[in-house]
């Protein structure tokens, strides 16, 4: 979470922006993401606008698709609005760290057990989506939001939004080249095994700090898995459910009857990330929007986001 | 973590819209609230009727001042406050972390590096206060919130300026005795060095899970604080010298906060990285859960009107025991920290406990197949600070129509439906000296006068005052510590009493002790049988529980070495009919649960058997699904016996012959879950599931799981007429709806 800059929008639809979610140098984010609050002060949102040079219409189509999906582990897009030129979407706010911010908060690559748990959670989400015939097509380190309730995938459809199938996508703004499967970079239609490639790059990033790691950099226990996920030829990559089985060989069978108490446990977070999430939560709780009666200044100054 | 607003909570205060309750106590309520600017805050309020008391209003203002002095790093940032409003309020940041006491109870004692960092940061917090000439006076684990960035001191109910004695007229000793300084315990000035003493106690608690002077009865604690060496068992050896020095009886021998911080040399690195994982997870959970809070308000409970119009209570403020000086009782109350002060510190602690009691998942958006959508919300309805820390007998609240008497000492009379405190400064002080037959509360008064005879009275149910005694036992001494009122029927009260030398606490081998029955109408002793002598300083009371059913008096008797026996006597004559040992792997308190009906007693000893009341012979035995399956203590109601079976869940048996009526669909049941009996409600039976911090509820007719709720480990009781599931924790009593 970062303070607002001069050129940031004061509002997203009816909501007042409070802070940025991403630091400026996260070039690979396909959208401009903000923390925003409803004008009545009651609700807080994660708000998103397309970045410059991304076709707003294609972007809005993916946002609308995301809004219609209900896949556990996907960030739930609640509202899509705006105009054809300037669309936006919002999701209910919860404290969230994009994976690059998490590495910054931790001061470097994340511990191997956490990367495994993260990989298992993401693989479970992707396996569910693929099972339903949905390809995420936007997975990258910045698309992974770590929350206190587990990772949430945002940036749905970023690859499809960047350019239509059949056009080269390599090097387009908003796409993380390290997470873009080779067949998608050359214009192929995003398919599930492209998500697996991106998953491999995300885990590599979490474990080393970059999406295209040297083989030796990877923790030995994850080296084989990440390398096969990053195979150039999609048919050589594992399916998401196979990644899940690999990372969580003792995944519980569903033999016993689920109860309220069995809701999936959030994955244990390293201390540095708990601290960063709690700090963000406290800052946003304490943040104030201008009182409604007072005219909104052209460039609102975020209050108390130190 | 949050409970809904009640029907009579205001909609807004000081420009803040109220969202949920965080806790409430005798002094006021703490709300989660939101300003028009969308800022979310904890809004602490003082009840308007208490705010009419100038001293209380002044105390509230001093608390606001102290919270501002300690600042946003070491305390909760103060956004705004209005101590002059009709309902005085203070808005602070909503602190994301559990109170230290809760943190230690669910994550275990903290590792040494965490204790060192905690101590150094608390030294800085105290230094901040002391630099402004404010002493805290009530530092304790429930007043310290553990956040990812360090501890925050949140409750200043009795903080005051050094040398300012405006607020001391109500009592000489204030604060929590377990962490009180010796000078505070003797009513002397508690200075900055007193806060250092309390801080050391807090660190001992953090490192070991127990305070340096244990817990238990007020007077005992005060005695130990003053005279006993601290119990530092389990403290990391490297911390022993400095903590011992902090716990010096002489304030001048203690280090300053600066010295202490230096000696703790916490080193560098994040505070969070020293915390155990379960605690980190809890902090993370709180940081996320608060964003799910939506304004909710409970409708007015229909039974509220009934409970308020509580009938038939005797009024007898004038009928005090003539030979008993009110002053001496006052003195004892003041010494023990009067309940007004208990209430003053309640809000912070209550706020804290609420979070841990309710896991916050009660509004799971995806109810599983087993739960149907028509079920009512299962929410914490109220909670009140009471004290049952390290009780000497299992804390069992007294349950009457429209009244709940709770707390091991400084007992309070509560409206069971709403949690409203009917009386909190009672003359009845120790729960173990009270019993109820469901209509009256009987109490053996205690006094500080050496010579007073043991007397038994009824209690004014509206005021908590003790009526004129209906029985005086001139050969027994009221003051002796081991006195217990065990149980009562409409006809008789059963109690223990002794004579011989007085001790500060515990027994003396020169004392003689008796079990006796007293006729309520006649006030005369029905019978009396001698009890075994206790060694000097033994603290074990003679009985852990007792029930009188028809002509039988069923007792769980404790020997001086802690062995338990189930003893059945003739209630009319005292004659011993039979007895047998109560063995089992569960702790004594778990074995002390008594399930009795008109024919059988169902002992709590890992097995599930029915013993004939008349002869102790086994009437039936339930073997369970697997060989040697163990059982929780049983409960019985309306001809059915309920227990939790290991690796199975709740089972319901016919009380006459032990045949299985139903069994819960199998679930994991750990040894811990076998420590308490199921709670039998009206349409449901409840059992604890500690692994998931939950209460499982099943349909009383079929055993089908109906609804579960996350809940901290507590002792649960059914208040059927108020339809409340009462949870008794170490420091609080709370209620859920009972179905």
Task: Provide an overview of this structure.
The complex is a heterodimer of chains A (about 300) and B (about 750). Chain A has about 300 residues and is an alpha+beta fold. Chain A has 2 domains: about 10-95 and about 270-285, Phosphorylase Kinase, domain 1 (2-Layer Sandwich), CATH 3.30.200; about 95-245, Transferase(Phosphotransferase), domain 1. Chain A is about 35% helix and about 15% strand. Chain A has helices at about 55-70, 100-105, 110-130, 160, 180-185, 190-210, 220-230, 240-245, 270-285, and strands at about 10, 15-20, 30-35, 45-50, 80, 85-90, 95-100, 145, 150-155. In chain A, a hairpin with a 2-residue loop joins strand 8 (about 145) and strand 9 (about 150-155). In chain A, helix 3 runs antiparallel to helix 6 and helix 6 (about 190-210) runs antiparallel to helix 7. The longest helix of chain A is centred in the middle third of the chain and has 20 residues, at about 110-130. Chain A is globular, with a radius of gyration of 19 Å. The N and C termini of chain A lie close together (about 10 Å). Chain B is of the alpha+beta class. In chain B, a hairpin with a 4-residue loop joins strand 16 and strand 17. In chain B, helix 2 (about 55-75) crosses helix 4 and helix 4 (about 110-130) packs antiparallel against helix 6. In chain B, strands 1-2-3-4-6-5 form a 6-stranded antiparallel β-sheet. Chain B has a 4-stranded antiparallel β-sheet with strand order 11-42-41-40, with helices on one face. Among the domains of chain B are: about 10-95, Phosphorylase Kinase, domain 1 (2-Layer Sandwich), CATH 3.30.200.20; about 100-285, Transferase(Phosphotransferase), domain 1 (Orthogonal Bundle), CATH 1.10.510. Chain B is about 20% helix and about 30% strand. Classes of the chains: A alpha+beta (about 300), B alpha+beta (about 750). Chains A and B meet through helix 9 of A and helix 10 and strand 39 of B.
């Amino acid at each position: 979470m970062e303070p607002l800059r001069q050129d940031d929008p004061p509002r997203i639809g009816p909501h007042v922006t409070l802070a940025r979610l991403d630091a400026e140098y996260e070039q690979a984010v396909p959208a401009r993401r903000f923390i925003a609050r409803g004008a009545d002060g009651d609700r807080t949102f994660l708000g998103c606008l397309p970045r410059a040079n991304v076709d707003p219409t294609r972007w809005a189509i993916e946002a609308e698709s995301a809004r219609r999906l209900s896949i556990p582990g996907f960030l739930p897009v609640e509202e899509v609005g705006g105009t054809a030129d300037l669309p936006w979407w919002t999701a209910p706010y919860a404290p969230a760290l994009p994976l690059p911010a998490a590495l910054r908060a931790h001061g470097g690559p994340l511990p191997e057990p956490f990367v495994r748990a993260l990989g298992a959670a993401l693989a479970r989400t992707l396996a569910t989506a693929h099972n339903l015939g949905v390809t995420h097509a936007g997975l990258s380190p910045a698309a992974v939001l770590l929350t206190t309730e587990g990772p949430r995938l945002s940036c749905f459809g970023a690859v499809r939004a960047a350019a239509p199938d059949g056009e080269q996508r390599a090097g387009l703004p908003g796409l993380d080249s390290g997470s873009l499967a080779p067949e998608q970079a050359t214009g192929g239609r995003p398919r599930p095994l492209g998500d697996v490639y991106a998953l491999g790059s995300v885990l590599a990033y979490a474990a080393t700090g970059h999406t295209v790691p040297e083989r030796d950099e990877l923790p030995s226990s994850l080296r084989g898995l990440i390398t096969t996920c990053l195979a150039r030829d999609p048919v050589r990559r594992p399916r998401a459910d196979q990644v899940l089985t690999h990372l969580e060989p003792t995944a519980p069978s569903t033999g016993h009857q689920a109860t309220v108490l069995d809701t999936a446990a959030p994955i244990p977070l390293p201390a540095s990330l708990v601290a960063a999430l709690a700090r963000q939560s406290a800052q946003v709780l304490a943040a104030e929007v201008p009182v409604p009666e007072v005219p909104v200044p052209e460039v609102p100054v975020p209050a108390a986001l130190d | 973590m949050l409970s809904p607003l009640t029907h009579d909570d205001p909609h807004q205060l000081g420009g803040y819209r109220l969202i949920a309750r965080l806790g409430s106590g005798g002094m006021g309520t703490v709300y989660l609230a939101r300003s028009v600017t969308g800022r979310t805050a904890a809004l602490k309020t003082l009840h308007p009727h208490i705010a009419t008391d100038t001293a209380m209003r002044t105390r509230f203002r001093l608390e606001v001042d102290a919270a501002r002095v300690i600042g946003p790093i070491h305390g909760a940032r103060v956004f705004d406050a209005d101590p002059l409003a009709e309902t005085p309020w203070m808005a602070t940041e909503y602190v994301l972390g559990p109170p230290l006491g809760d943190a230690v109870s669910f994550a275990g004692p903290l590792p040494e590096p965490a204790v060192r960092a905690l101590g150094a940061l608390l030294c800085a917090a105290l230094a901040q206060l002391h630099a402004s000439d404010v002493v805290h006076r009530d530092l304790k684990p429930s007043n310290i919130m553990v956040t990812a960035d360090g501890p925050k001191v949140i409750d200043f109910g009795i903080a005051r300026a050094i040398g300012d004695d405006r607020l001391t007229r109500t009592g000489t000793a204030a604060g929590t005795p377990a962490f009180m300084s010796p000078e505070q315990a003797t009513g002397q000035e508690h200075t900055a060095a007193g806060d250092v003493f309390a801080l050391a106690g807090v660190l001992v608690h953090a490192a070991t899970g127990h305070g340096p002077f244990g817990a238990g009865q007020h007077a005992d604690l005060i005695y130990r604080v003053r005279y006993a060496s601290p119990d530092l068992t389990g403290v990391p050896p490297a911390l022993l010298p400095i903590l011992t020095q902090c716990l010096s009886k002489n304030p001048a021998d203690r280090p300053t906060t600066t010295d202490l911080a230096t000696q703790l040399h916490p080193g560098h690195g994040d505070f969070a990285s020293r915390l155990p994982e379960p605690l980190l997870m809890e902090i993370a959970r709180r940081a996320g859960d608060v964003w799910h809070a939506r304004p909710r308000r409970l409708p007015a409970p229909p039974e509220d009107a009934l409970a308020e119009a509580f009938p038939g209570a005797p009024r007898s403020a004038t009928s005090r025991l003539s030979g008993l000086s009110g002053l001496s009782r006052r003195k004892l109350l003041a010494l023990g920290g009067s309940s007004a002060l208990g209430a003053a510190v309640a809000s912070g602690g209550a706020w804290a406990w609420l979070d841990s009691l309710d896991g916050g998942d009660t509004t799971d958006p995806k109810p599983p197949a087993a739960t149907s959508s028509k079920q009512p919300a299962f929410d914490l309805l109220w909670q009140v600070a009471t004290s049952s820390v390290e009780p000497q007998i299992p804390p069992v609240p007294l349950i009457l129509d429209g009244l709940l008497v709770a707390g091991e000492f400084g007992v309070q009379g509560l409206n069971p439906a709403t949690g409203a405190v009917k009386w909190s400064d009672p003359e009845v002080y120790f729960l173990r000296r009270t019993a109820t037959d469901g209509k009256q509360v009987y109490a053996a008064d205690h006094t500080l006068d050496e010579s007073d005879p043991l007397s038994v009275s009824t209690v004014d149910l509206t005021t908590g005052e003790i009526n004129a005694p209906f029985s005086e036992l001139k050969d027994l001494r009221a003051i002796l510590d081991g006195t217990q009122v065990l149980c009562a029927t409409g006809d008789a009260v059963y109690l223990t009493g002794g004579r011989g030398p007085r001790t500060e606490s515990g027994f003396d081998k020169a004392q003689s002790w008796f079990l006796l029955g007293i006729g309520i109408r006649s006030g005369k002793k029905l019978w009396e049988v001698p009890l075994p002598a206790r060694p000097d300083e033994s603290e074990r009371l003679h009985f852990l529980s007792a029930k009188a059913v028809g002509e039988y008096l069923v007792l769980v008797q404790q020997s001086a070495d802690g062995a338990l026996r189930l003893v059945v006597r003739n209630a009319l004559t005292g004659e011993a009919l039979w007895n047998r040992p109560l063995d089992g792997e569960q702790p004594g308190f778990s074995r002390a649960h008594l399930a009795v009906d008109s024919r059988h007693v169902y002992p709590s000893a890992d097995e599930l058997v029915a013993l004939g009341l008349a002869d102790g012979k086994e009437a039936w035995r339930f073997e369970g699904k697997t060989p040697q399956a163990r059982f929780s203590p049983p409960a019985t109601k309306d001809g059915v016996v309920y227990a939790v079976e290991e690796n199975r869940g709740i089972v319901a048996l016919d009380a006459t012959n032990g045949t299985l009526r139903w069994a819960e669909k199998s679930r994991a049941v750990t040894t811990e879950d076998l420590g308490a009996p199921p709670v039998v409600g009206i349409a449901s039976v409840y059992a604890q599931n500690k692994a998931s911090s939950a209460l499982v509820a099943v349909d009383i007719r079929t055993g089908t799981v109906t609804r579960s709720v996350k809940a901290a480990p507590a002792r649960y009781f059914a208040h059927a007429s108020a339809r409340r599931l009462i949870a008794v924790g170490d420091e609080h009593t709370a209620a859920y709806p009972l179905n």
